[in-house]
Amino acid sequence: MKFRVRGIFYLFIIFLLVVQVGVTTHENGKLKREQEGIKENLITSQLTHEIFEVRHHAKLIKRLMGHHSDNESKLALLIELNNTKYSLSKLEMNTEYLGAWLGYEDKTLTPSGGDCLKVLEVMYSDIQSGGMTDKDVSLVSRSIDVIMNFTYVYPPTYENIVSGLNEMNRECRELLLEADKTEEK
User: Fold this and answer.
1) Count of domains in the chain?
2) What does DSSP assign to residue 133?
């Protein structure tokens, strides 16, 4: 009888331990999902902040484009082009880095980058040289429009931001190709 009670007691303790392991596993799963949600919100907030930086500088370029002939405005325009390029470069780099942090290491959600940065470099050198034609002004205007259109990505999820960056760079690539074709003629 004594052994039976002891055996039942041990079985009861084993049962409690199994239940505790099950509850702990369930809670850990819940916490892991919550952690992933918080991580995604943090990343989205960071990228959204950087998108607003890009938009701010692009809007300033748009305003300054009408006055690029006088020296002060030209200098301000060059500074804003540089700031836009820096902000956009930082956004693309952080999108790739944060995507890896989220676990998108298979390259399905990484931005194809650089084309809008190339457009900004071309704009910078054209404005700095002082030899801007009407076609150059048109390229600048349309490129800034492309960049600004990207900054209105909603809802700002990581996937939408990457998709927007890819679309923006595709449009900038088309503008670069178009500019090359018009220069060849």
Assistant:
1) 1
2) -
Q: What is the dihedral of CA 165, 117, 62, 144, to 10 degrees?
A: -40
SS3 content of the chain, % helix, strand, coil (to 5): 85, 0, 15
pLDDT averages per 10-residue partition of the chain, 185 residues: 80 92 94 88 86 92 78 86 92 83 66 80 84 79 91 80 88 87 58
Instruction: Find the domain containing 161 and state its range.
Output: 2-184
pTM across the whole model: 0.76
The answer to whether the beta carbons of residues 85 and 121 sit under 8 Å apart is yes
Alpha carbon separation from 156 to 40, 114, 140 (Å, rounded): 11, 21, 26
CA distance 46 to 39: 11
